[in-house]
Amino acid sequence: MDQLYDSLDFFDYAAYRLNLSDWAAVARVFHPRFIEVSGCIIWERAYEEQNFSDWFEKLNGDATAVESTLNQLRLWQLVDSDTGSPVEMESEKQLAHEIAFFWRAALESAYPDRDFDGGVVETDDGPVIRFVVRR
At what angle do helices 63-70 and 49-58 cross, to 10 degrees? Predict the structure, then answer.
């Protein structure tokens, strides 16, 4: 059965493998929602009132530091890859850059009066997508 999927292009592969719930989840990864709290633009999924308050206090109200801390998507949270193969690592990097492209678009669409810094940060654990407001 896997040979069938290996021979499909990306569109047909996704059409065969993903159901409506899968598509909805993928859409939210590529088009996340953000909220504004205390002058910070925060990834909605990362926002939890007490956690935000703790970080805001710990970082002395530094909005950029709070955003940098909370607005992170660690690719290893989405993709299970322990092989360390060069091909897989390159694919992870490419995926991270694709997600970052759409995160920037979502931020710029939701907050057209703001500029954003960020993108993909390479870490020892793999790529991390991170964005902050340019102040």
Answer: 130
Contact (CB, 8 A) for 132 and 117: yes
Q: What is the mean pLDDT of residues 67-95?
A: 90
Would the pTM of this model clear 0.90, i.e. be above it?
A: no
Give the C-alpha separation, 58 to 92, whole Å. 32
Lowest model confidence (mean pLDDT) among 68-77, 80-89, 103-112: 80-89
Amino acid identity, position 104:
R
**The residue to which tokens 């990362």 are assigned:** 46
In the beta sheet, which residues pair with residue 131?
118
What is the pLDDT at residue 84? 74
The answer to whether the beta carbons of residues 52 and 37 sit under 8 Å apart is: yes
Specify the length of the chain in residues: 135
In this prediction, residues 124-130 reach a mean pLDDT of 93
b/e map 95-116, b = 16+ CB within 10 Å: bbeebbeebbebbeeeeeeeeb
Region of residue 130 (left: phi > 0; alpha: psi -120 to 50; beta: else): beta
